[in-house]
Design a protein that fits this description.
26% of the residues are buried. Helix content is 5%, strand content 48%. It is mainly beta. Strand 62 (913-914) and strand 63 form a beta hairpin. Mean pLDDT is 81; it is low at 340-375, 556-560, 613-618, 794-838 and 1009-1025. The protein has eight helices and 85 strands.
């Protein structure tokens, strides 16, 4: 049937010959079904999602749980006028991967029915009424945890097929079922989400058995559908259940549950209670943790100590059992099930650590007691009652009876058992003993014992039982008992149970023989045999050793006794105390007195004057300031050292302590301190006497370096004794006068010292390394006042040294310390005689090699006298002079660096050598006293400091300042001066004398300490002259110098002179802008007193006016006769000075000079630095024609300050033609 209208005419022929035509009309329609909506909206597949290739519509269900139901409503509209019979088919999807725009292949499309009922539509079949909407319910009910994908086919039944063209119309059409709509459906499945809050229940503390406790918790349903649950119940030993045990929970809701617990027996329980959820693959678990406890019975005492017992006695003790819970307790008390045997093997060690002398009595016969140890402990202990029932919180008494069977340390454990509860254990102890005492050692050996000195030892008495034992020590016995004695502390006493007693034994030997046949007895009450203590000893006599400290560098490890030397060093600094230590060790317990003293260089502490200590005690002084206390302490130390060195030997060894008692086993450290006031190589011996031993002689050696002389100006230099001061003569002018300095030398030694001075100049470019000095005889022989060598001067030194007084050295003041008594002189004579007899023969030639530091020279430094004798304890004076060098013109300055060496010699034989005791070097063999000399020689030069760091001192003057008054009326000429200042600084270290001079137009004013302001002054004001005046400028000082520049109108005459007539120091300068200046150059001369000259450039500029016109010609053209025309020109000043000007009109004809006029005809133009209105003047030029003809004139501008004249050419013509009448005047 076609989907169009059609008609057919049927003719009916009746029997009555009537014919009737009947027309049948009909309209064909196609099936038209429309999916209106799917539960409000229709979803679209996601991008890239695999879908059915033939489905027109897509429906997606939200995620669901297994066995849950989800539904969507489908609204389908029948757009035809026919009733349609339908039914639904659920098919498998046809899935093909297609590109965009690709048509699926019909050959691969297959139709397979779904084999499950996850998706179904209701109604599943029926009749679709025409032109109405029909609702269908699409249900999704998953069965398993998987994703479902189906296609719902809407099939219309009995749909006729369209006839073929060649088929007659009266043929009945074929009918078939047709799929009119395909809807693709998808659904996801998710497991049930059930949550317990909390997921575990932990009950703190302990819960009594038989007591029911409840705990609340929540069960959340986070699934997408309602759930049904059921809790299991545990009741094997403990009852665990949940109330309510079953129920249903809606989606996203919780259910309040309660856990019920009842304990059956004590102990910790960790269990899991299961909850089964319908259609859920695994149960939900609730973890439960709880601890149950039963009845508890406690004992009043944790252990039972029955104490010390003797064999055959029995004892009984009572204790209380208490039920501390609210439950009834069934208890029993008795030995443990696994009763531990009393291991006597553990006590075997205690019974066998005895002395061999008492072995038979202290060993328990293990064979005889073996049968006794087989008895169990319960045969010796009885419990009454041994079991019972305790009501809640009740108590009862239990008696324990102990009957020992043998000597032992009884130790057992009774177990208190409680049915379904917690009991405890009770320790029971008892000691069964008999008295037994022994010595820890039976021999007492004194390895270190000394004759007559008691030696102490210690022995130990041990009570091996818990019973008290009384002991007593008796007298010594043996063959050698008369050669010694012994005492015991304590001599008697009582030993407590298992106690140890230390007994001190004082043993004294009266001989150095070996003692071995001596013993002491100790009787113990209750023991058959006494204890025996034997003595062994060999006494020693006094033994003392000497050594140096371990850190001493002179001690050799191989044989300390051989290398025992008190070496103070080879480079001991003069006057610096050096302390060495000697260690005396008493290796015995015998105390002994000792004394120590140096053999020759003795040093005894000076004793204070009689009564001085008493006077100090009478005066009570206030506490001294720390500085004052330090000074007092230093003064006391200085007096102490002076007293030690008062014997005049140059050195002293002070021993502290020098006497005393060396105690038993004592090690005393003796300090030997060396004090010196003279150089030399010293040798001596330390005499050590201890008790009755032979004296010990210990060698002493010391080499002292340094200088006992010092300069008064710097005082003593403890660290640099051979280094004198640095004499700085400062900076002097080249070729100046000689400068001299006086230096005072002090001698702190006990001997006269002769000084020989030599001066050396230091040359920085000198490459010499060594000096070789060859001397014949004495390197520094004795000389007279004139500097000549004294023949036989050495013989004079063999005589007795004279008694020096103040007259020997003119510069010596108060040197009375060098005076000596007769006894001292006699002693020196004896020493000199011995020295002279033993002194070595003098050397004929001497060669000395020393580092080269300078060249010997007496210029520019000189020391006088070159040989001087500094008395012992006195002083002398030397003079150092400096003569400045004369520098050449090429040398800017010169540093004079030199040094002087003072070589020391000793004229007395006693002071130079004492055989075996001291040897002193002198002359070239001894380090000299050094005196550094420094000075600087510079030329006379002053530093010129100007205000603006200019190369020359510049002056600026203005020519207009030379005219005073109104212009062109009362102008008065005057002179003007401009002053400038600069600083002359003496940067040298010497004063400079000089004079200042210069040439006109400059002059030097009186120098002052401060600058004056520059300005002009009238001729009546006179400036103080400063030339040819001698000035003195101290080092590092400056002086202000004022210089004036004098200007006058006469200087303008240079402008009219030719270049040959102008002086060379005067010139006319014109800059780019046309400004003119007169420049004057000159110099300021500085004349020094050493005839040297220094110049300072001077430069002055006199500014001149420079005028100009705006134009050089002016044409008025043709003008009406009698009418005045005015034009304007500008007169400008570009110079640095004002211009006094005047305008003169020159027409060439006297009678026609009135046609042109200039207004104004004179004035003043300010310099260009002023405002433009002041430096520019407008000039009005007027023209009045008197006749009908041409007029010409020249206006000349002239100045009074050397300005070149300016000319302005003007012209005009007169006419009576009225056309030239001008209504406005030209400007």
């Amino acid at each position: 049937m076609l989907a169009e209208s059609c008609s057919q005419v049927f003719t009916i022929v009746c029997d009555n010959c009537q014919v009737k035509d009947i027309t049948v009309q009909g309209q064909g329609q196609l099936i038209g079904l429309e999916l209106v909506c799917v539960s409000g909206e229709e979803e679209v597949p996601a991008l890239g999602e695999l879908c059915d290739v033939t489905a027109e519509h897509y429906v997606r269900f939200p995620t669901a749980n297994p066995h849950s139901v989800q539904q969507k409503t489908l609204t389908i509209r029948n757009n035809t006028h026919l009733e349609l019979t339908f039914h639904w088919q659920i098919m498998q999807p046809n899935l093909q991967t297609l590109l965009p725009g690709e048509i699926p292949d019909p050959a691969h499309i297959q139709y397979h029915l779904a084999n499950d009922d996850v998706f179904y539509v209701s109604p599943a079949s029926g009749l679709l009424t025409p032109l109405q909407d029909h609702e269908f319910l699409l249900t999704y009910q998953p069965q398993q945890l998987m994703d479902y994908h189906r296609v719902c086919h809407l099939v219309v039944r009995d749909v006729p097929e369209l006839p073929r063209e060649d088929e007659p119309l009266d043929t009945a059409p074929k009918v078939n079922d047709v799929i009119v709509m395909e809807i693709e459906v998808k659904g996801l499945t998710q497991a049930y989400q059930v949550l317990l809050e909390p997921y575990s229940i932990h009950i703190p503390g302990e819960v009594f058995i038989g007591t029911t406790i409840r705990r609340s918790f929540k069960m959340w349903n986070n699934s997408r559908s309602r759930i049904a649950f059921h809790w299991e119940r545990s009741g094997d030993c403990h009852i665990m259940e949940v109330e309510p045990p079953a129920g249903e929970i809606e989606m996203n809701e919780c259910f309040d549950l309660e856990l019920v617990l009842t304990g059956g027996r004590p102990g910790a329980v960790i269990s899991r209670l299961l909850c089964h959820v319908q259609h859920h693959h695994q149960p939900v678990t609730l973890v439960i943790q709880v601890t149950f406890k039963g009845p508890q019975v406690s004992v009043t005492v944790p252990s039972l100590d029955l104490g010390l017992m003797q064999l055959g006695d029995q004892t009984q003790a009572t204790m209380v059992l208490t039920n501390t819970t609210h439950l009834e307790a069934f208890w029993s008390l008795g030995p443990e099930k696994a009763e531990r045997t009393d291991s006597l093997e553990s006590g075997k060690a205690e019974r066998t650590d005895s002395l061999e002398s008492g072995k038979a009595e202290r060993t328990d016969s293990l064979e005889s007691g073996k049968a006794e140890r087989t008895y169990s402990h319960h045969t010796q202990i009885t419990v009454q009652p041994c079991k019972g029932v305790l009501p809640p919180l009740a108590s009862c008494s239990v008696d324990i009876l102990f009957r020992p069977l043998f000597c032992q340390h009884f130790d057992t454990v009774l177990e208190l058992a409680v049915e379904n509860g917690q009991g405890c254990h009770l320790s029971v102890q008892a000691d069964v003993h008999s008295p037994q005492v022994c010595l820890l050692t039976c021999d007492l050996v004194f390895s270190e014992i000394y004759v007559g000195i008691p030696a102490r030892g210690s022995i130990t008495l041990i009570n091996q039982t818990l019973l008290p034992a009384h002991y007593t020590w008796t007298m010594l016995q043996g063959q050698q008992a008369s050669l010694c004695s012994a005492s015991f502390t304590p001599s008697s006493g009582t030993l407590g149970p298992n106690a140890k007693k230390d007994v001190t034994v004082a043993f004294t030997a009266y001989t150095d023989m070996e003692l071995s046949a001596v013993a002491a007895l100790c009787e113990v009450t209750g023991m058959k045999d006494p204890l025996v203590l034997r003595f062994f000893s060999t006494a020693q006599r006094l033994n003392v050793s000497y050594s140096l400290p371990r850190d001493c560098p002179g001690l050799e490890a191989e044989d300390p006794a051989v290398s025992l030397v008190l070496d103070f060093g080879d480079n001991v600094l003069l006057k610096r105390p050096i302390t060495k230590q000697l260690v005396m060790t008493n290796h015995t317990a015998i105390p002994a007195p000792f004394t120590l003293e140096a053999e020759y260089f003795t040093g005894h502490a000076p004793s204070p004057p009689a009564g001085q200590s008493q006077q100090r005690g009478l005066h009570v002084r206030k506490p001294l300031h720390p500085v004052q206390a330090k000074k007092v302490e230093d003064k006391a130390q200085e007096g102490f050292v002076s007293g030690l060195l008062a014997h005049g030997k140059g050195a002293a060894f002070f021993v502290h302590p020098d006497c005393g008692i060396l105690g038993a086993f004592e090690t005393q450290t003796i300090d030997i301190t060396s004090f010196t006031n003279m150089w030399g190589e010293y040798r001596d011996q330390l005499i050590c006497k201890v008790g009755d031993l032979q004296p010990k002689l210990i060698p002493i050696q010391m080499t002292v370096m340094g200088c006992p002389l010092y300069f008064q100006m710097i005082g003593p230099q403890p660290d640099r004794q051979n280094q004198g001061p640095i004499i700085r003569f400062g900076t002097h002018v080249s070729g100046g006068d000689t400068v001299s300095r006086s230096l005072r030398l002090n001698n702190t030694s006990p001997y006269d010292i002769r000084m020989d001075w030599e001066s050396y100049n230091v040359d920085q470019e000198d490459r010499k390394l060594l000096d070789v000095v060859v001397a014949y005889g004495d390197a520094f022989p004795l000389k007279d006042v004139d500097g000549n060598e004294v023949v036989g001067g050495g013989a004079m030194s063999n005589d007795t040294p004279p008694t020096w007084d103040r007259s020997h050295t003119p510069s010596t003041e108060g040197t009375s310390s060098s005076l000596k008594s007769k006894s001292d002189l006699e002693e020196e004579k004896e020493e000199e005689g011995s020295v002279h007899s033993a002194s070595p023969q003098k050397r004929l030639f001497s060669v000395f090699i020393r580092p080269h530091e300078g060249n010997a020279s007496d210029y520019p430094y000189c020391i006088t006298p070159q040989q001087i004798n500094v008395p012992a304890g006195g002083s002398s004076t030397i003079h150092v002079s400096f003569t400045p060098l004369t520098l050449s013109e090429l040398t800017s300055n010169a540093a004079c660096v030199s040094f002087a060496l003072g070589f020391m010699s000793l004229d007395s034989k006693v002071s130079s050598c004492i055989p075996g005791k001291v040897q002193r070097a002198q002359g070239q063999d001894l380090e000299p006293l050094r005196l550094d000399l420094q000075a600087s020689v510079r030329p006379a030069v002053l530093s010129v400091q100007m205000e603006e760091e200019e190369e020359c001192l510049e002056f600026c003057a203005v020519a207009s300042d030379l005219i005073q008054g109104e212009p062109h009326n009362e102008m008065v000429q005057r002179k003007c001066s401009v002053t400038r200042t600069f600083q002359l600084k003496n940067s040298t270290e010497m004063p400079l004398s000089f004079r200042l001079s210069t040439q006109p137009p400059f002059s030097v004013l009186q120098p002052r300490g401060c600058a004056e302001t520059a300005g002009c002054s009238s001729p009546s004001h006179s400036l103080p002259p400063g030339e040819n005046q001698l000035l003195l400028l101290q080092p590092r000082h400056n002086k202000q110098v004022k210089v004036a520049f004098h200007s006058s109108l006469s200087m303008l005459a240079y402008l009219r002179q030719s270049a040959e007539e102008v002086p060379p120091n005067v010139s006319l300068v014109t800059n780019e802008s046309g400004e003119r200046k007169l420049r004057f150059r000159q110099t300021l001369s500085v004349h020094y007193n050493n005839n040297s000259l220094q110049t300072v450039p001077l430069c002055a500029h006199l500014s001149l006016p420079t005028v100009s016109l705006s134009c050089d010609s002016l044409d008025f053209g043709t003008c009406y006769v009698g009418q005045t025309l005015v034009k304007e020109v500008h007169l400008s000043n570009r110079g640095g000075s004002s211009s006094y000007w005047r305008v003169i009109i020159d027409s060439g004809e006297e009678e026609e000079g009135s046609e042109f006029r200039v207004t104004p005809d004179c004035g003043v133009l300010k310099p260009l630095e002023y405002p433009v209105s002041s430096s520019t003047q407008p000039l009005q030029i007027s023209f009045t024609a008197s006749k009908e003809r041409e007029f010409q004139a020249t206006a000349v501008v002239k100045g009074f300050l050397g300005e070149p004249p300016l000319s302005l050419h003007v012209q005009g013509r007169g006419s009576f033609d009225q056309r030239f009448v001008s209504l406005l005047t030209d400007i």
